[in-house]
Amino acid sequence: MTSERMICLKCSLEAGSAVFYEMTKMGVTVRYGYHRGKFRADIWECPRCHHKVIKGFGSEYFVSNDDDVDFDLYEGHRRGDRK
Ligand SMILES: [Zn+2]
């Protein structure tokens, strides 16, 4: 569990007080870069500008099917051999 908080700098400067990101979705599944495995993480959103970030990554895990990937940012298949 993460307890770090994040401030949206742009909104805070505009509003004149700290605008904190809020966790809007817990436990999404993300794959990115060249990792063959997946990661669980959380989506945080600025309540003012609705900018979203993904943070709070757990450790990489491996399962055989890809059906449960919410955000597939895998880059490995961009290197030529398409199916
Ligand atoms: Zn913002």
Characterize the structure shown.
This protein is mainly β and 83 residues long. It contains one helix and four strands; from the N terminus they run αββββ. It has a four-stranded mixed β-sheet, with no helix packed on it. It is elongated. The model has no long low-confidence stretch (mean pLDDT 89). The site of zinc ion has 8 residues, from helix 1.
Give the topology string: H per helix, E per strand. HEEEE
Between the first and last Cα atoms, what is the distance in angstroms? Answer: 38 Å
Structural class, from helix and strand content?
Answer: mainly beta
Count of separate DSSP helical elements: 1
- How is the biggest beta sheet arranged? 4 strands, mixed
Order of strands across the biggest sheet? 3-2-1-4
* Number of extended strands: 4
Write down the overall geometry: elongated
Q: Give the count of structural domains.
A: 1
Helix content: under 10%
- Which ligands does the model contain, each kind named once? zinc ion
- Poorly predicted regions are none
Mean pLDDT: 89
Q: What does the radius of gyration come to? A: 16 Å
Kindly estimate the percentage of residues that lie in beta strands according to DSSP.
25-35%
Task: Outline the secondary-structure elements.
Elements: H1 9-15, E1 22-33, E2 39-45, E3 52-55, E4 71-74
Parallel strand pairs: 1-4
Antiparallel strand pairs: 1-2, 2-3
The structure holds zinc ion.
Zinc ion (ZN) is lined by residues 8, 10-11, 19, 46, 48-49, 51.
